[in-house]
Amino acid sequence: MGLRELADNDEFARRYRERLDSIGVAAVRRGFHSISGARRSFCLNLVGVCSSYAIWTCPAGTLGSMLVAMGGAVSPHLASGLKQELGLVRAVETGTYRGWSARRLARVFPRVVTIELSPQLHQTAMKTLRDLPNVECRLGRSVDHLSELAHERVPTLYWLDAHWSPLFEASAGEADQCPVLDELKAIGPGDAADCFLIDDARVFCASPRPPYDPEHWPTLAEIFDTIRELHPGHYLTVVSDIVIGVPAGAKHVVDEFSRHPVRHWPLAARLARYLLLGVLRRVQRWAGER
Ligand SMILES: C[S@@+](CC[C@H](N)C(=O)[O-])C[C@H]1O[C@@H](n2cnc3c(N)ncnc32)[C@H](O)[C@@H]1O
Question: Into which CATH architecture does domain 65-259 fall?
Answer without folding.
Answer: 3-Layer(aba) Sandwich (3.40)
